[in-house]
Each structure stands twice: as C-alpha cells, then as structure tokens.
Amino acid sequence: MTTTRVASSRVQKDSNGDIGEHLRNHIHLTNSIHLKNHMHNKHGPVSTDRSLLMRDLVLLQRSRSLRDPSANRNSPSSNGVVHKEGTRRRRRRRSVDHNVVKKSGLRLSSSSPVLNFGTSKVTPSDERCDGLSENSFGNEVYSVASVKSKDRANNIKTLSDQLNEVLGDDSDDVVPSNVPARGNGPRRRKFRGARRAGRAVTVRDNVVGIKSEMSLAEKYEEEEGTQREQDMTRAVPRNGCGLPFNWSRIHHRGRTFLDIAGRSLSCGMSDSKGRKGLTDISISSASSSSFTKPDRKALPLLVDSGDNEGWQHDYSGELGVFADDLLKNGEKSSSRNPRRHHQSFTQKYAPRTFQDVVGQSLVVQALSNAVAKRRVGLLYVFHGSNGSGKTSCARVFARALNCHSPEHSKPCGVCSSCVSYDNGKNKNIREMGPVRSFDFENLISQKDRRHHHKVFIFEDCDAMSTACWNALSKVVDRAPSRVVFILVCSSLDALPHIVVSRCQRFFFPKLKDADIIGSLQRIASKEEIDIDKDALKLVASRSDGSLRDAEMTLEQLSLLGTRISVPLVQELVGLISDEKLVDLLDLALSADTVNTVKNLRMIMETGVEPLALMSQLATVITDILAGSYDFAKDQHKRKFFRRHPLCKEDMEKLRQALKTLSESEKQLRVSNDKITWLTAALLQLAPDQRYLLPPGSSANASFNPSPSPCKDAAGEVRGRSGEGFSSVNRPSVEDIWLAVVENVRVNGLREFLYREGKIFSISIGSAPTVQLMFNSPVTRITAENFRDHILGAFEAVLGAPVTLEIRIESKKDQKNLGGRSEIIELEDESESAVTREANKNKNQSIVRGKVSLAQVIKQGEGSSWSKRKALLIAEKLEHENLRLESRSRILICWKALGSVRRKLWRLKMRTRRVRLHSLWKLVSSGKCLPLRSSIL
Ligand SMILES: Nc1ncnc2c1ncn2[C@@H]1O[C@H](COP(=O)(O)OP(=O)(O)OP(=O)(O)O)[C@@H](O)[C@H]1O
Ligand SMILES: [Zn+2]
C-alpha cells in the first residue's frame, strides 16, 4: 500500500506539471528522434507533427510509471493492464506474439491491446521482473502483484506445454502458446540481459512426460510466490518516476572517446541494445506479416500496436488529455490509413537473404555453404560488434536451413517455410532472450518426423543463467540431429568455455565505412533522400562500424526534408565544422592563449560536448597528419597552419598535440569539470607551454633545447613558434625544478624534495649537469639515498642523460647567489654544422638566474656606473661564479668581436687562473648582449 501511495503521489506530481521535466529526463525512452524533436520543436529544424507528439506522450503515459496504479489495481481490467505491462516490457526488447498470448491462457480483458508481430516467443517474464526490480523498476509491484494472480497462474501454460505444443506440431502454423521461462528468484544481472529478456521462445516436445510438466508448473508456482513476496516488499521506484534508471544507462554504455560524437547522432538510440527494442520489432514485422498489418509495426519502445480501446483510460494527468486526442485522431486516421505507423530503415532494410548481408562475406560464405552442403552443426555462436548483422545473419541462416527451395540460393523467400517465417508463423525458428532456464532435456527425446530444422536463436546469450548454460552443455552431445542453437552475443568472454569450445564461432567485425556508405547510398536512393557523399561519409564514420547506427542516423536526417550536407549533419548531431576546429587548433598551437580560451568558450556555448570536441580535434589532427585534410579555406587568417605543407617540426608538434589530447581525454572522462580540462589540454598544445605538461608526458615535457629551428621549403630557418628561437621559450629553473619534483614517483620523496631541495645550477646541453643543493648533511644523505629516483625525474624532464651532483649549500653559496639558481646553456661541440648555424641565430650564450657578471653588466649599462667600476665588480663576482661553474666547457657572456667570440666559445676553463685571465681579457674587449638583460 505504501508503495501504491507513493507511486500515486508521484503520478499526481507528474500530472501536476512535472511532466515536461519528466519527459525531458526520459527523452530517450520513446522513439527518441521524434520526441526529442517535439520537445525542442522551437529550435528543431523539423516542424512538429502533433499526432506524433501525441503518440509519444501517450506511449510515455502508458509506461507504468505514469499511470495511477490504484485506478487499475482492482478494476476488472487490471489483469489486462498488468498483462500490458508485461507485454510492454517484452516489447521493449522484441515483439510479442498476439496469438501466443491469446492461447497462453492469460486473462486479458477483451480490450487489452496485444501486439502480434508474428514470430512466437516465450518471454521469461519473471526474469524480466527480477531484472527490472533489481534495477529499481518502480512499477514492478503492481504488475507483479497482478501477474501473480491465481487465475493467471492457473491458466499459464508451462514450458513443457510449450515444448509439447511446438514439438508436437510439425506444421508451419502459428505457435499456440506463450509461457514465460522461469527464473530462480531475483538475481542482479547486467541490463543487457534484462533488456533482452523480452525475447521469447516457444518450444515443443511431444514426448514430454506429465511428471516433468508438473514439476515445471510447480516450480513456476513456487517461484511466483517467492517473487510476489519479494516484490511486495520491494521499495518504491528510486528514480522518482518508475522509468528504469538503466534506460538512461543504456545510451551511455560502452562509448568510446571517438564515438561519443557519433553516437549522439541517434539521439540516444545509438546504443544498439537500446535501439534493439525499436529495431527488433522488425524481427517479425519487417520481414513478415507486419507488411500486411501495418498498424503493428514500427512502434516505438513503449507503444502497443493493438487496438486502442483497451488503453483509452490507461493513463492519467496531462497525458490523458493528449492521449484522448491522439486516440481519437489515431482512430480516425487509422481507419483511413492503415499504414499509419512508420517503419524504420533498420526494419525495412534488414537482410532477408545472405546476399543482403553487408560486409560479412566470410561468415556468409561459410553459412551458405553449410546450408548448401547440408553440413549443419548443432551449436553456433555469432559474436562481435553491435549492429554488425549477427542477429540478421542468424535469422537468414535459420530461414535458409528450413527453406524448401531446391535451388541453392536459400532462403528463397517464396517457399512455404520462408513465407510462414515472413508471416511470423514459422514455429521451427524461435528467438529468445537470455533465459534463466530452458528445458533442453525435452529436446533430447524429440522425434524428427519432418525434415525441419528446429533453430533456436539465443539473443544476448552472454546474459544467460548458469543453470541454462549447464542444461545446454548437458544436451550438446545428445541433441537431435536437426536441432540448431545459434548463440548471439557481443563477446565470448562471458560464455562458458565448455559450450563455446563446442560451437562453430563466427566473428562479426565492425563494418567498414565503405560498406556502410554503400548501404546508406542504396537506402538513400530508394528513399529518395538527397544527401551529399561527404555527409554519408560523416554519418558512416560516426557510426563506429554499426550499420544500424548509420541507418538510424540517415533516417533521422531524412526527416529534415532538405538536401543533407556535411554542415547540416554536423549541426544536427552537435558537431562543429572542420574550419572551426582548425581555427581553434591553430590558435592553440600558436600559443594564442587568450583567443584559444575565447574561441573554446564560444564553441562550448553552442552546446558541444567537451569529449566530442576533443574527439573531433583528434580526428582533424589525424587527418592533417595523414595529409587528407584540405586546407583550402581561410589559410591566410591562420598562424600555425599558414604555411602548407607543414614542415617536419610542425608535423611533430601536431603528433605531440594528438598525444596530449589522448592523455587528457582520460582525465576529461572522469572529471566533472570537463571544460576546464579541455581548456588545459588545448593550452598545453602551445609550443611555449610544452614545459608545463603534467608528469607522465615526459617526452613532451623535455627541457632539452635540442635543435628546434624548422627549415621550411624555402630554406628559411624558423624558430619553434615561427618567429625565431626566443629566450621566452626557455624555462626557468623554478619551472624545471617543479617539473622534476612532479615527475618523482615516490610521494614522500616528492614532498621532501619540494621542501628541502633546490637546484643550484643546471647546465643545459646535450649532457646536462645539475647541481642539487640541500641545506643539511641529513637531507643531503636522504637525497643521495633516492639518487636514482631524482636522476630519473631529471632525465625525464630534460630529455637527456643527466649528471647529478647533490651537495650541501654553504654559506658562501647563499651569499654569492643570494639563494637563487642559474642555468648555464652550453654549446655542444659535437653539434652538426646545421645546428650550429641555427644556433647562431639563437641567443644561445646565456647565464641565467642571478648571475653576477651579467647582472653587473646590465646594471652598468643602464646606470651611471663607469665601465671601470662595472668591470671591477664583475671581476669579483665572476671570480666566484666561474669557480662554481668549473664544469662549464664554454661560457659565453659577451658579444665580442667575431674572432674573440670564437676563442671564447672554445675556451676551456680548466683552472681558475686561466679562466680569470682569459675572461678578464675578453670582458675588457666585449660588451653586453642586449638580449641577456631580458632574461634576467
Ligand atoms: N551486415 C549487415 N548487413 C545488412 N544489414 C545490417 C548488417 N548489420 C546490421 N544491419 C542493419 O542493422 C540492423 C540490426 O542488425 P542486427 O540486429 O543483425 O545487428 P547485431 O549485430 O545483431 O546487433 P546487436 O549485437 O546490437 O544485436 C539490421 O536490421 C540491418 O538493417
Ligand atoms: Zn524458401
């Protein structure tokens, strides 16, 4: 009762105006394309079709969550309502057989709308219930309570009944019953299974013993009782509306970095399993009687396709008003136009023959040969990517096995077997979801009086229960010769080896873009959709190898009713154009921080998903690297991409940018603040910020000033940012130290170094030398103990083997350097001529930090010091400085005459006297480098 009250109040709340929000939250629950458009019709490119909106609303209303349960609970039609609930659930996965339901003995109100999509199935409804309730399917209580009514239980046929009926009748008539496969009580299992649980099967066995029937029936009763108890004590729905949380989850499952954008194409229907409910209606409808019973095909997930009268008052609140209208209109229009329901492309263009199957030539060849040569196995497993044709192939194979055509091209589509399948009446082919239990034993004693293959297609078999697997593995060796099991799943991982090892395994890889494009083109021409080839390519590339995704997207695009171009596709699916992407990339790579951030913000304001944007950026970089991007437009506006073709170094930068993006993607995925991470990632693409890359990207974070000038086609030497190698690009000692500390993998050590250590000096070159200073013997020894870690961090940051000296800071050091550090950049004599030439253009001779000599000279230049005074001070300070830098092979501080400079470069300062003497001479004849002052 509590449950009912809460649910009622929720329903009331919904009817009091929260519907809009409610619908928005569950926009994907309905035939998402339409409803989404309806909900956003102000902005949508398609004008709203009121009747469609009405239908969607009614569909939603008809979900149990929006119905006032108390209104139905005790009503005479409650069983019918309950049945509809159950039916609806099943229908989310797959169609339900009207005939099956009729004959199953379920007490339905005469007006109960029941779908009939032809192919008979048994739905493991308890399994569904378990799955649903475990997933907080709030309305479970009502349906279970009613479903478990004695009347119904008494009238429901057991699985053995089904077996008897199916196996006892060799005609291709309608399968007469539908019994839920039973579960063993509630069990948490993945949603995939729950969704597929709607699949049904009817099996037969004309030799099933009464005893076994009884046991099954008893078991059913017993389980039902348990289930009822559990369900009655179960809490009210936690999602506040009764619609399952995992419906939301469906649409985000398994998304990858690069497919997020594309997946959004289908407005929440991208997940193949999520869409299965829609697509799967085609199992019998597209290929069967649905063509002749148009009212019952192509219904969205929540719709009943039967007569309307049974559900006229099966809703409440606002939706009731809409629904009444809809029903009135619907009835009128249905009487006028029997084909009022849309048939989706996936239904319409589902493969009927092996020739129709796209891109799975090996599988097709093997299966058709198996049929032709009558070498049919018992167990098959079709595994692989979603939307790649596994289920379609299973169906075609099943039809071919039973096809009576003497020709080799089976299935023929015209023989009685093919026709009965198309009409949904071929009981030799059964499809079922991930059942909990299946009485395989009954098959063992089956006598095959006719030359029919009994084909059982198990969808989502990876969600089948252990008991079911056990049962299956037991019958594997004893099964009748004409029984075929086809297990369909996306991965073999969850399947027991004992079964898999006895299966013929067929892998269905993702479909190639070319195959998808070909199929889309065929559909587009048949449907007279005017679409650019490039737009088709974009659709295909965003479908992640799933033809179903691509077909869904094409269908969505076809609703626009105009010529479909790439920008239109991009706009529709929330992608940004390539030009904008390249503009953003250009700004980021040119280190234009302000405009990068501004531009990114503007893009974000259009509602683009950060992950999708990152994916697009990665794609466009890949295209540029592959040379397939056309830079035709707006080239002059750009900085980084102004020159074309890009030089080698620029290409390398792009490669690094790709790496940075892919590394940032991981953070982006788990972060709540995706935009910030995206911004950070973009700013890291800039050359002058490469030093600030996070640890882990040591290759990017290298401070080694390896020759960077970039020779373009004209032979001109360019610097990293195309403007010459500037001192701005050089990191400070603090930057280096921070990067090194960040790179240390031991947490405690990191803090220790940060607190106690500092760089005394770094000589950067091909063989960098670092002097690390600590202020006490204890800390020095501690650091020594971790020398390897520290050295590793330095080498990762500097990108070269490092000589590390760990020392104690003396008072003299403090006095002389004022506690600050320096970088001395060395010329490597082994550098190539080209590099040396390039280095001439750089301000290579630098003594950084609080370098006394340079500072004094600077001071002297800008002040009224006499040259002599400056030199005197310089001499004194340089004296100390040079002593400290005894490792330096060359110290260049002065811009002297050419000959003197060359001498200076080669100067080896081996002894203090030599150094002082030589330097003094050079100092006297030189002058300060102007650039140096900017560094200090
Ligand atoms: N290889 C294919 N050839 C032709 N059509 C295909 C192919 N793959 C997918 N399709 C289209 O996609 C629809 C769904 O395909 P199907 O259900 O066979 O995929 P699946 O691999 O079983 O997917 P899932 O694993 O998600 O169940 C089909 O109705 C058809 O329109
Ligand atoms: Zn045939």
UniProtKB/TrEMBL annotation:
Q: Where is the composition biased (Basic and acidic residues)?
A: 11-21
> In this protein, which residues make up the domain named STICHEL DnaA-N-like alpha-beta?
728-807
Q: Which GO terms describe its molecular function?
A: ATP binding; DNA binding; DNA clamp loader activity; DNA-directed DNA polymerase activity; metal ion binding
Q: Pfam families of this UniProt entry? A: DNA_pol3_delta2, DNA_pol3_gamma3, DnaA_N-like_STI, DNAX_ATPase_lid
Annotated Polar residues bias: 1-10, 71-80
Instruction: Determine if Nucleotide-binding is one of this entry's keywords.
Output: yes
- The DNA polymerase III gamma subunit domain covers 567-629
Stretches with biased composition (Low complexity): 696-705
Entry-linked InterPro entries: DNA_pol3_clamp-load_cplx_C, DNA_pol_III_gamma-3, DNA_pol_III_sug/sutau_N, DNA_Rep/Repair_Clamp_Loader, DnaA_N-like_STI, HLD_clamp_pol_III_gamma_tau, P-loop_NTPase
Where in this chain does the record put each DNA polymerase III subunit gamma/tau helical lid domain? Answer: 516-550
Show the coiled coil region(s): 647-674
Would you identify the family this protein belongs to, as annotated?
A: Belongs to the DnaX/STICHEL family.
* NCBIfam families hit by this protein: dnaX_nterm
Protein name stated in the entry? Uncharacterized protein
Species of origin? Brassica oleracea var. oleracea
Name the lineage: Eukaryota, Viridiplantae, Streptophyta, Embryophyta, Tracheophyta
